[in-house]
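Hi Y.,

Following your request, here is the sequence exactly as I used it, all 107 residues.
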Amino acid sequence: MGMFDSEIVQQEAMQLFQDYQALMQLGNSYGKFDREGKKLYIDQMESIMERYRIFMKRFELSEDFMAQMTMEQLKTQLGQFGMTPQQMFDQMHQTLERMKAEIGPDL
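Below is the corresponding structure, written out as tokens. Let me know if you'd prefer a different format.
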């Protein structure tokens, strides 16, 4: 059975996508959040990024053909921007660190 045939993988992918979309939509109002709201948003974004990193690592380590093709497509798409998957995660992390710095200490 391939990775994409697994109901668990499908559910996890769907939940990750839905959570990310909801957070991105909420992010449109980020500038209106109070300090605590911004902290909560950053925490949630960090959580989703970690879930995404783990999800993608499973694909990277899988011997499943479709998982490998998915990783190659991601690498190709990111390569068009001169970026690797690791650089993408590093950049996301740096963005979140800047957001933390903007709202002050205690994060």
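Residues 42 and 97 are 9 Å apart (CA to CA).

Thanks again,
Q.
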